[in-house]
């Protein structure tokens, strides 16, 4: 199962996307299909192209500022649409894109459709914590959902964490204003009631407690989830800047701070979004990994490796089987 890479999507495309592909290629046991403008791709590939890298022409680009559905209608030969169609046609088992998130979500949905029994797709974002991190979803795909859909999110997230991240028997929390039963809005109360019917539900969780070591998955609607995600990003950047500004610029004055480098190195790595690579779009009949718009080569490499793990773990088939087993059909 090949992996299609949208080479023209992202703030640093195509250079960083191609460099990420070159870094990932030795670790991939299939072919990488680079979708985009051939001349632009060739310019960055160089003469030492790996044998498992192939160019698939696509001459249009969906820009970050464009309205997703309008762009998809007008640009049938865009790198994003062609990549999604490669999965639809069975020429690829997954696609990776750092382009317009709304367009990547819509292109995947239109090309592949939802898994039977899943009513809304969801974007899962891996957030660092005191443990091995937790998956937050929905982080941006479906802002208007019913309480029943959060149960679907929980089922999909558990399949992802087990098959792709190797988390054994992951448990699901519901993001709420209090951990006690009966807290929150009418939506949250109904979601909590429905989730409680499943043995893997671990109860409500407040935002401040999500970062504890024993948290695997946190579900919410995309409106809340996207605010949480971007707040986390903003706080992380704020703290990093505060630390940087606290260190003197004078080289001699920096000497007392040198021992702190070893202490900060693992923290810096844990907070680096590029170490994760991307976010899986769950609930569709295909694998889509959505990378951050500002992704560098390392982030693209890790997004491709995430796509490979999703294919190897039979993620889509696992979600199908789990949905058929756990959720009422019809």
SSE inventory with pairings:
Layout: E1 3-6, H1 15-24, E2 32-36, H2 38-45, E3 53-57, H3 68-74, H4 79-88, E4 94-97, H5 101-112, E5 122-123, E6 125-127, E7 134-137, H6 147-163, E8 172-175, H7 186-195, E9 201-205, E10 217-219, H8 222-246, H9 260-271, H10 273-276, E11 278-282, E12 287-291, H11 297-312, H12 315-326
Parallel strand pairs: 1-2, 1-4, 2-3, 4-12, 7-10, 8-9, 8-10
Antiparallel strand pairs: 5-11, 6-7, 11-12
Helix pairs in contact: 1-2, 1-11, 3-5, 4-5, 6-7, 6-12
CATH hierarchy class name of the largest domain: Alpha Beta
Low-confidence stretches: none
Order of helices and strands: EHEHEHHEHEEEHEHEEHHHEEHH
Distance between the termini: 31 Å
Report the mean per-residue pLDDT as an integer.
Answer: 92
Number of helices, counting only DSSP H or I runs of 4 residues or more: 12
Helical residue percent band: 40-55%
Strand order, biggest sheet?
3-2-1-4-12-11-5
Please state the second-level CATH architecture of the largest domain. 3-Layer(aba) Sandwich
């Amino acid at each position: 199962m090949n992996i299609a890479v949208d080479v023209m999507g992202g703030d640093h495309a195509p250079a960083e996307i191609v460099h990420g592909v070159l870094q990932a290629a030795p670790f991939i046991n299939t072919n990488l299909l680079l979708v985009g403008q051939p001349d632009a791709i060739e310019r960055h590939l160089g003469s030492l192209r790996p044998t498992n890298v192939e160019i698939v022409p696509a001459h249009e680009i969906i820009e970050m500022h464009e309205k997703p559905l309008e762009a998809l209608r007008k640009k049938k030969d865009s790198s994003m649409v062609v990549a999604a169609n490669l999965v639809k046609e069975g020429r690829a088992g997954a696609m990776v894109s750092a382009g317009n998130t709304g367009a990547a979500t819509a292109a995947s949905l239109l090309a592949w459709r939802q898994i039977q029994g899943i009513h809304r797709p969801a974007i899962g974002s891996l957030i660092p914590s005191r443990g091995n991190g937790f998956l937050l979803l929905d982080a941006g795909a479906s802002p208007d959902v019913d309480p029943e859909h959060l149960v679907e999110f929980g089922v999909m997230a558990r399949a992802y964490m087990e098959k792709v991240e190797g988390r054994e028997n992951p448990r699901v929390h519901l993001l709420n204003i209090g951990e006690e039963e009966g807290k929150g809005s009418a939506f949250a109360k109904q979601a909590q009631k429905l989730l409680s019917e499943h043995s893997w539900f671990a109860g409500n969780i407040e935002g401040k407690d999500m970062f504890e070591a024993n948290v695997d998955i946190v579900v919410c609607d995309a409106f809340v989830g996207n605010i949480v995600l971007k707040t986390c990003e903003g706080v992380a950047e704020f703290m990093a800047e505060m630390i940087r500004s606290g260190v003197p610029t004078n080289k001699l004055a920096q000497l007392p701070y040198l021992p702190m480098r070893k202490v900060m190195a693992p923290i810096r790595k844990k907070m680096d979004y590029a170490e994760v690579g991307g976010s899986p779009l769950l609930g569709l009949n295909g694998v889509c990994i959505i990378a951050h718009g500002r992704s560098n080569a390392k982030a693209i490499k890790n997004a491709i490796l995430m796509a490979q793990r999703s294919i190897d773990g039979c993620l889509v088939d696992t979600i199908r089987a789990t949905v058929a087993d756990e959720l009422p059909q019809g």
